[in-house]
Amino acid sequence: MFKILIIISALIFSSCDDSPRVYGPTTFVVGQQVTVEMTKGSTLKENGFSIIDSSGQIFTSSNPLVEYEWIGKNEFSFRIPSGIASGKGVIKVEGSSEIYSLDLNLIRGLIWSDSVGTLTLSDMNLPANEVKTAQVGEGYNIIRIIDEQSRIVVLSPASGQIDYFTMDGEDQRSMGLFAPSLVLQSTTQGINAQPVDVIAIPSGLVIAADKGIAGIKVVNAGGTTTTFDSWIYSDGATRSLDISGEYINSEQDTVKLIAAAGVNAANESVIILFELRTFPRASTPKDVIVLSSDSNVSDVAVNEGGTHAAAVIPTENTLYLVNTSTQSVVPTNISDCSQPTAVEFVAGGEKIAILCSGSDSVQVYTVSGTTANHFKTISAGTTDNHVAGMFYAADGRVYVSLEKGGIVYFDASSSNPVLQELPNSSFIKSSSFVVQP
């Protein structure tokens, strides 16, 4: 945890300048915790704190995203909240006789990994500014944002390594670990499988693997431990996972829906659905919905409300929409989308974005229930620089990375989306990336 030490110069040097002197870092990323201590000056008011970002948004001490905590003796802590605009920001701290204003540089990060295992957080406004780094497994990685604090989990399928990172590192240039790393491989006792995807849930992780779906417990009890729990599904390989937002189910319980794409014992492409109530295990009720006899399903998505799921099969050039209540399945031919490899619900679930690796484009479809209609084709890559990865961010944009370097994006909610380049991102060569909320 880093401290900003605020000293009023007039009280020390008898200067006419009574503006606060700031000792310590003044650049912070979304999710980072900060402690402020007033060492000289008037007594601070316990809740006299606010952050104003570059867009004019005001986050006060009562906002739960700020995680404001009064420590006492003119000292408090807060967290840079998700949803804050990057750029210049101002902290206002109310004292007994005046209000102090402190200038900060607030960064919303693009987090990406390269082929040699370097995880980097770059400034979205200036991608060449590498703010924080960490080491992960080599090769392709799966990066997932866990929570509003921008904690992340990284899975390296080639090595089976799982790492957990927080924005609160030992120094300003590092990400910190909030749980021990874990390696899951075919030689790991109880696992005997190769992991390929991961999502975070309370108290742990859900892993897609060539043996099925596994649960990993992350327990905080006298120190954080990570252990294999059990197999949730073991009738066939799974390749992709997604999780909905919270919703009220038919039993009036608040739950989330987990969707997995994989195969069953008959080697058919299926979507596996189960509600997240308690930590999932083999006994957790599951719906296994057959999509096709073609076993090459590549990706799955579920909308925020948990009412519909979607999957793509590259060898069929087909999009499948599933009503999660009735389990009805509707295939849509997407022949203009060669090798669909990734799918996301976007624009509040009103549209679907599909990454077409063979045609270097993103196909956007409007959806109503299980009916999908083609809306727009976004040419994202070229014959010299193919599309590599896709991420739908909290800002409503679909971001696409390119094999030889660069990030492009478009506004998913626009009636006429236009592709734009993320300035100065040509050096970023990664198929795995996320954008902080």
Description:
The structure is a single chain. With 437 residues, the chain is mainly β. It has a domain at 2-107: Immunoglobulin-like (Sandwich), CATH 2.60.40. It is 1% helix and 54% strand. The protein has one helix and 39 strands. Strands 2-1-4-8-7 form a five-stranded mixed beta sheet. Strands 3-10-9-5-6 form a five-stranded mixed beta sheet, with no helix packed on it. Strands 22, 23, 24, 25 and 26 form a five-stranded antiparallel beta sheet that branches. A hairpin with a 3-residue loop joins strand 20 and strand 21 (224-233). The longest helix has 4 residues, at 10-13. It starts with a strand and ends with a strand. Residues 8-17 have low confidence and may be disordered.
Quaternary organization: single chain
CATH class of the domain at 2-107: Mainly Beta
Low-confidence stretches: 8-17
What's the story with the biggest beta sheet?
A: 5 strands, mixed
Q: Label the overall shape.
A: globular
Q: Which structural class do the helices and strands define?
A: mainly beta
β content, as a range? over 45%
Approximate helicity band:
under 10%
Q: How many beta strands in the DSSP annotation?
A: 39
- Give the integer mean of the pLDDT values: 89
